[in-house]
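Regression test case RT-17, inverse folding.

Input:
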C-alpha cells in the first residue's frame, strides 16, 4: 500500500532503569545461562523489536482501537496474505557504559520446598540506573485525519506512560525487573504539507535544530495531542506499599562464594546521591519476595480446602486463584513485586566489595557462624562449619535501612467477583506479613528473615472491607471455584 507522508514526529530521550533489566540475546554467555543481548559493536543493548513489543502490549491493554495499533506497529495478515508495514520506527538502544550482573533463578517444588529438576539457572541483567538512549520516528500519512483518534495522539499517550515508568521491558517484569522511565524527552513535529521549512530542517539536521531539554512533558507533547488522543480502556490496577523493618539479619545469597565468609549477600548496582558516585548495595529480588508470598498463599488455600492433602495427585480448582496472582507455566500472574534495596549511608564500592574489604563488609553486613549437626552423633558434621554475611538487622531507634516493598495487582482481565476474591487473598497475605507469619530470604529457620511491618499504604481504589469479605465468603462457600479469563485463539496478525 502506497503512502503519502505529510509529516514526521521524531522522539528522543533517555530510558533510565528504575529496576534491573534483562533483555536476552542469542546463546549463553560465560557462566550465564540467559545472557544479556549484545550488538555488533559488543555493547549491551535493547533491540528495537524488544522496545516495540512491550510498547504495543501496553497500548493494547489501554487503547480500544486495534486499528491505531496496526497503523503504529504494522501487521501481517496470514489468512489473506496481506498486511501493512509499521509507521513507527524504533532504533536499537545501546546501554551507556555499564557492567553486566548475574542473578540465579530457581523454581521450587511445592511438595518438598526443594529446587525442581532443571529449574536452577543464571540470568544476566543490567543494574538500576543504566541509561539507554531512545530514538523513534513516526510517519504521518495523509490518510490520518486529525480527530478523536490519531497515531500521533496515541504516541503522545504512550510517551506519557513511559515518562511515568508504566511500560516495562524485558524478562521477569512481574518479579522486579524491566521498569524504565523516559527522561529528557524531546519531541519534534515536522509538517511537510503546511511548512516547507520543516522538510529542509528534517533533511538537514536529522533532528531538532535546538536543544529543548527541560521544557517539560506537557510542552513537548502539546503538538501531538492536538491531533486527538484515543479512547482508553478501563484499568483496574491496585497498588500496595509496605513499610517494614528487619528484626533479624536478611540474606539472599550471591552467586559466588566468598573468602572472608562462605556466603555473601546478593548485591546490585545503584545510583549515588546527588553529586556522588554510584556503587552497589544489598538487594532483595522481587522474585524472592514474590516466592515467599506465593508459599504463604498456597498454605492459606490448602488449609481452607485440603488440610489433609487428599487432592495431592491432581490440581484442584482453588489453585486457579494462586495462578491468577502468581502465575504458572500456562498463565502470567497479575501480581508484580519490585526489587527491594538496602539503603546504606553511601553505596559500597564494587572494587572494595570484590576484595572483601573489612570496611565495605561491615558497613552493610554482620558475620554469622554456622555448623551442621550430625543427627546420629549429635556432634558437628565433618566439613560442615560455614559462615555467612547477612545484611544487618535494623536498629529500633532509626528508620529502616530497607526500601518499602511495592506490590501491584492488575485485575483488568477479571470480572468483579474474581477480582475481589484476588484482592481479599492479597489482604490476607499482607495481614500475615504484619503478624510475622512470613519470613523473607535465606535461613528463615536459622534466625534470619524475620521482619516487622511498620505501616501499609493501600491504593485509594481498593474496595471496602465489606465487599472483599463478601467476595471471599462466596469463594470459600463455593468450594474454591475460580475461573481464569479465557483468551481468544492466537490472532493471525503479527508485528512487522
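Golden output:
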Amino acid at each position: 500500500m502506497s503512502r503519502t507522508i505529510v509529516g514526521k514526529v521524531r522522539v528522543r530521550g533517555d530510558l533510565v532503569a528504575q529496576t534491573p533489566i534483562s533483555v536476552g540475546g542469542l546463546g549463553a554467555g560465560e557462566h550465564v545461562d540467559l545472557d544479556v543481548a549484545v550488538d555488533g559493536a559488543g555493547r549491551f543493548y535493547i533491540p528495537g523489536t524488544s522496545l516495540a513489543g512491550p510498547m504495543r502490549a501496553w497500548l493494547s491493554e489501554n487503547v480500544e482501537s486495534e486499528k491505531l495499533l496496526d497503523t503504529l506497529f504494522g501487521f501481517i495478515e496470514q489468512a489473506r496474505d496481506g498486511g501493512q508495514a509499521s509507521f513507527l520506527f524504533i532504533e536499537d538502544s545501546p546501554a551507556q557504559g555499564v557492567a553486566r550482573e548475574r542473578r540465579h533463578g530457581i523454581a521450587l517444588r511445592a511438595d518438598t520446598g526443594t529446587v525442581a529438576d532443571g529449574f536452577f539457572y543464571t540470568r544476566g541483567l543490567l543494574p538500576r540506573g543504566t541509561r539507554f538512549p531512545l530514538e523513534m520516528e513516526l510517519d504521518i500519512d495523509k490518510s490520518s485525519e486529525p480527530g478523536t483518534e490519531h497515531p500521533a495522539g496515541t504516541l503522545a499517550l504512550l510517551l506519557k506512560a513511559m515518562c511515568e515508568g508504566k511500560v516495562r521491558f524485558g524478562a521477569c517484569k512481574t518479579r522486579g525487573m524491566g521498569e524504565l522511565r523516559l527522561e529528557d524527552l524531546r519531541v519534534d513535529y515536522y509538517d511537510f504539507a503546511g511548512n516547507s521549512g520543516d522538510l529542509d530542517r528534517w533533511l538537514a539536521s536529522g533532528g531538532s535544530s535546538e536543544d529543548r531539554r527541560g521544557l517539560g512533558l506537557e510542552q513537548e507533547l502539546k503538538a501531538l495531542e492536538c491531533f486527538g488522543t484515543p479512547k482508553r480502556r478501563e484499568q483496574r490496577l491496585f497498588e500496595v506499599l509496605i513499610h517494614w523493618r528487619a528484626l533479624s539479619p536478611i540474606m539472599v545469597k550471591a552467586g559466588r562464594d566468598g573468602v572472608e565468609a562462605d556466603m555473601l549477600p546478593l548485591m546490585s548496582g545503584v545510583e549515588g546521591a546527588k553529586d556522588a558516585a554510584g556503587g552497589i548495595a544489598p538487594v532483595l529480588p522481587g522474585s524472592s519476595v514474590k516466592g515467599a508470598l506465593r508459599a504463604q498463599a498456597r498454605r492459606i488455600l490448602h488449609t481452607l480446602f485440603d488440610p489433609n492433602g487428599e487432592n495431592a495427585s491432581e490440581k484442584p480448582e482453588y489453585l486457579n486463584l494462586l495462578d491468577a496472582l502468581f502465575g504458572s507455566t500456562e498463565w502470567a500472574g497479575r501480581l508484580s513485586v519490585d526489587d527491594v534495596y538496602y539503603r546504606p549511608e553511601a553505596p559500597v564500592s564494587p572494587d572494595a566489595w570484590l576484595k572483601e574489604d573489612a570496611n565495605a563488609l561491615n558497613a552493610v553486613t554482620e558475620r554469622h557462624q554456622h555448623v551442621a549437626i550430625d543427627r546420629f552423633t549429635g556432634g558437628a558434621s565433618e566439613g560442615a562449619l560455614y559462615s555467612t554475611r547477612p545484611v544487618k538487622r535494623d536498629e529500633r531507634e532509626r528508620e529502616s535501612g530497607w526500601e518499602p516493598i511495592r506490590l501491584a495487582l492488575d485485575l483488568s482481565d477479571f470480572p468483579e467477583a474474581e477480582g475481589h476474591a484476588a484482592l481479599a487473598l492479597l489482604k490476607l497475605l499482607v495481614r500475615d506479613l504484619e503478624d510475622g507469619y512470613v519470613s523473607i530470604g535465606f535461613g528463615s529457620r536459622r534466625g534470619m528473615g524475620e521482619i516487622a511491618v511498620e505501616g501499609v499504604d493501600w491504593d485509594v481504589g481498593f474496595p471496602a472491607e465489606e465487599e472483599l469479605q463478601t467476595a471471599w465468603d462466596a469463594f470459600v462457600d463455593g468450594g474454591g471455584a475460580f475461573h481464569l479469563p479465557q483468551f481468544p485463539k492466537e490472532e493471525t496478525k503479527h508485528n512487522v
